[in-house]
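Suppose a colleague, Dr. K., hands you the sequence of a protein chain of 131 amino acids and asks what its three-dimensional shape might be. Before reaching for any lab equipment, you can write down a predicted structure in token form. Begin with the sequence itself:
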Amino acid sequence: MKKIAFYMMMLMMSISYAAAQGQADIKFDKTSHDFGTFSENKPVVNCTFTFTNVGDTPLVIHQAIASCGCTVPEYTQEPVLPGKKGTLKVTYNGTGKYPGHFKKSITLRTNAKTEMIRLYIEGDMTAKDAK
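The predicted structure, expressed as tokens, is then:
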């Protein structure tokens, strides 16, 4: 009987300890960016998303995947400490793409409370001959 009570007490303590552990949390200044209108003459545009770790443990971005090969994300590789900021730079290359409107997504996988986050970029590329 004492063993059962001891194991139950250990189980309760481990559950309490696990619940008390903090977790990283990510907050972006913005989750979408509109490049507006740009020319096919200069088809490469980029923007930077800034985020803050609002949790209480270091934040790690495991992966950033773009929805298309024309979009390349570069992100802060080292863990972001609580209260500190990190960046995600996104480059869109419209070379060889048809002019017009585009909307692309970047999916982040992190160790934050929300493990998967989706960011968006969009814009309108005008043809070389357009004035």
